[in-house]
Amino acid sequence: MTATTLPTADPQFSGSETDRLLDGLERLAAADLSYELAMTARLRFLDWTGCVLAGAASEKLRITALLNAGGDGPAPIIGTDRTSAPLTAALVNGMHSHVAELDDGHRYGITHAGGPLIAALLAMGHDPRMTSNSLLKGIVVGYEAALRVAIACQPEAKLNGWHGSGVFGVIGAAIGTGVALGYDRSQLNAALAAAATSASGMVKAFSEGSELKPYNAGQPALTGLASALTAGAGFPGPQGILDGPHGLVQMLRGSPANPTAFDVSTPYCIETVYLKPYASCRYCHAPVEAALNLKARHRISAQDVARVEVETYRLAVHKHDHTEIEGPYSARLGIPYCVGAALALRETGMAAFTPGALSNPETLRIMRATHVLEDPALTALVPARRAARLHLYLTDGTRLTEQVDLPRGEPEVPLTAEDLHTKFIDLATFAGLAPETAQSIAAHILNPTTSILDLLTKMDKD
Question: Hey, what CATH class is 17-271 in?
Answer without folding.
Answer: mainly alpha
